[in-house]
Amino acid sequence: MSYRRVLQIGGSYYVSLPKEWVKINELENSYVKLDFLENGALIIELPTRSQTGISHAKIICSSDREVFRQVLSAYLRGYEVIEVELDAKCDRKTALERIEDARRILLGLELVEESDRKLLLQCFVKPDYNLHSIIARMDSVTREMLSMAVDILLGKRGNAEELSQLDDRVDRLYFLSVRLIRGKLREPTLMPEERLSLLDMRLVAKNLENLGDTYESLGMLKEIIKNQGLSEIAERLGRLQAGAVRLFLEGKANRDELLDDFAHTQKYIQEMAELPGYLREKLSFALLLVKDIIDLS
Question: Residues in domain PhoU (predicted)?
């Protein structure tokens, strides 16, 4: 037993924790749980797994069709180690293929150990990634996709395979952002305004992921569009998207000017009667996704 002095700093009171106890339980820069008992005692407990980031998940694979979804779910929930146990109904070869599909879009996930009926995955993602940098990178890659998709439609350069590879990169960044955001939302000391900011960031990340899917679908149309106005639309849309993301991340763009650019671009798309209807629909949908980012800023 030891005694600690109660110190008053400002409007709060503080008691130091034993240094050895903090080190043994690896609590530096972490949290502890306080529990007040009816007899007046104060219990200091170690944080629960949900507060520190759950370290180990075990998946029972009874269907090789489900293992992709199960691994994705465990990754997004922040598990560092994912153990996949294959029962008799789960085909090992097919399960490995599905896991490889998951690894292709889940940044930092590696297969580190395998046996006949068990697979061990580990995620080497650090929790201190800069979310702003991830969002900025998603914006950059999706705008590159837009440029390439329009060039494909105009018969200039690029191919659908290259476009799909870029979309996979966007997906990896998106799932990484969701994993990191969910981890931060579990922090017990998170302020309400920080929580709201993280939720907004997840919506922006989702919009950028949807933009990537939309731009990929443009390049999959497999036809040449003889309309140079398409390049003008792509330039306007890309410029507007860059401004919207900059406004969200840095607050440096002019919101009113962006909204004016949105209205002019929307009108430009609607008045281009020679564009096929399905193409105009995809471009209009992308434009609305960008507008959502402006509205969240």
Answer: 135-216
